[in-house]
Amino acid sequence: MGLLQDLQNHILIADGAMGTLLYSFGIDRCFDELNVSKPEEIERIHSAYLDAGATVIQTNTYGANRIKLARYGLEDDIKIINQKGIELAKRALQKAENKGYVIGTIGGIRSFQKSAFTLSDIAENFREQLHVLLSENVDGIILETYYDLEELKTVLQIARKETDLPIITNVSLHEQGVFQNGTRLADGLKMLEELGADIVGLNCRLGPYHMLQSLEEVPLFEHAFLSAFPNGSLPRYENGRLVYESDEHYFYEAALQFRKQGVRLLGGCCGTAPKHIRAMAEAVSNLPPVTEKEVKERNVPIHVLPMKESQETPLPDIAKNRRSVIVELDPPKTLGLEKFLTGAKALKKAGIDAITLADNSLATPRISNVACANIVKSRFQLRPLVHLTCRDRNLIGIQSHLMGLHTLGLHDILAVTGDPSKIGDFPGATSVYDLSSFDLISLIKQFNEGLSYSGKSLGQKTNFTVAAAFNPNVRHLDRAVQRLEKKISCGADYFITQPLYSEKLIEEVYEATKHLNVPIYLGIMPLISSRNAEFIHNEVPGIKLSDSIREQMQKAGNDKEKGKREGLAIAKSLIDAAFDLFNGIYLITPFLHYEMTVELTEYIHEKEKAKRERKISHV
To answer: Which keywords describe this protein according to UniProt (predicted)?
Structure first.
């Protein structure tokens, strides 16, 4: 009799956690590699779960794939680690009193940074591990801890083509009853059944309480059984370690409730131990599985209010239809906003379309750009374009930040990765990078649909317009353009470039990007001295100045005003080169010398006025 035949008439008990149990013993390393270096420890845990009443045990191969093993330099040991994992599970089962099943475990890859690995990367990685597990004659395959439904659907289809063995798909949820893309749990599990999964259910992240509530909305399926592998509890942080606490009697009662929800394969995940498995096994011993259940009416999502229509024309629409100038004016590094506000007022008078505010550029702390943005908007009715980096905030902080921006009515964002902290004033500070710039763009667009990262309703749709960064100062421009195309697929509405100092490069950028259907604001930053020029040429990655520009700046000597005049002259020649190629110009103010970007703004408007007059005269 096989696993699926057994499930027709019985509730089967699976094992509990492997990783957190090893962690509780003081082991904090690559758990999968212990199949080779500490086989007796892994076999002992398998035996403990079997003695507790489990008849389905998973191989210790959750992270035994090339991508995860590469973190430990073990990517070439995939075959031996997986083979030993199966061998140990089978050996423990052979010694057990009861018969049972060994299921090959493959864990999910994607976490917060969906863009870190493409689906083709994941598919290739998955096939390699799957083939090893199948070659060792396991009794089934379990795909567990998949937060991303797209990833799970991809690997499930591969597995279904490769084997007729039972396939278990256990998903993980950030929020009760809903995937992070907003798909309801019942709908997602139905998709998995239709793709060939034999057992569908939940594992990890949620304890019994929230997992049961999630399953209340899930019907019994025609072709797939239900599974549940809850966490032991919410962990607490004690003396630098995560500690799980839960009473086994609680799991006894929970097992009875899981049975009522139609679960036929019941195990445990993080924080569970043999005592929890024993309690669940005792609870459902000799109880038949339910064949009918009352499905709780699907929770009606919080009504999502439509986004408030902005009175302002989106910046990309402006750049598509007319000349547009935006100017970066960085918030000060020290307290006091007098010069910054004077500069903002002058730029408003000069007729810029928006003021852009960096987010602690060069990893140096400055006055909050959100505070500055709110002030210039309310005081001068000047449109702020707020930069948002992935460096300084974790996923929680980024979402809170976005909700704050929406609440303040600040709807223009430049999504950037952010300079690493080691180059700034505090090189020992932590760079977070929970998300990449690609992920951040996607998250902002998900907010525009009224959904948080976890898939939970925000109650309102935001109306952010998202700019993305573009650095053309690279050796292979075609690769940089491929990154732009990827950012467009994530939802980028337009691009802002790093400063360019070559008329030839400006033409090359135009030719390389003219096929894109989104506007580009070309970056121009005036030089202020020969020292400034040499620093940019020699120390700023990716930017090189021509010999003629460096010589021109050297002629200014130590005369500060002459240096600025030379810098302005160079900037104007670059504007001339870009003028008929790019509607959008992005001026970067050097060191709060706002009078320079005011002059360049006026220069652009004068050129535009002259161009219009020439057209009229020709008519």
So the answer is: FAD, Flavoprotein, Metal-binding, Methyltransferase, Oxidoreductase, Transferase, Zinc
